[in-house]
Design goal:
Length: 76
């Protein structure tokens, strides 16, 4: 039997979960758009600074995907 209080707690958790998911979806869409535009870098202008920036971005995303998919240092 679920009490009214437990249901209200779950409603708040669900609401917070959906808000966090919406925030993530927005960030992912922005990153996809930026990637589609080659991170606003023309191929003739690419330098090692751009490589370093993208490598840094990739490492941050790898932390997230490793955690989400239980890979890398998060592997079980």
């Amino acid at each position: 039997m679920t009490t009214r209080r437990a249901a209200a707690t779950n409603d708040k958790a669900l609401s917070a979960f959906l808000a966090a998911k919406a925030e993530m979806d927005t960030m992912l869409a922005r990153l996809q758009a930026l990637s589609a535009d080659h991170f606003e870098t023309h191929p003739d202008e690419v330098n090692w600074g751009h490589v370093g920036t993208l490598t840094h971005y990739a490492s941050l995303l790898r932390e997230i995907t490793d955690s989400a998919f239980k890979e890398g240092e998060h592997a079980e």
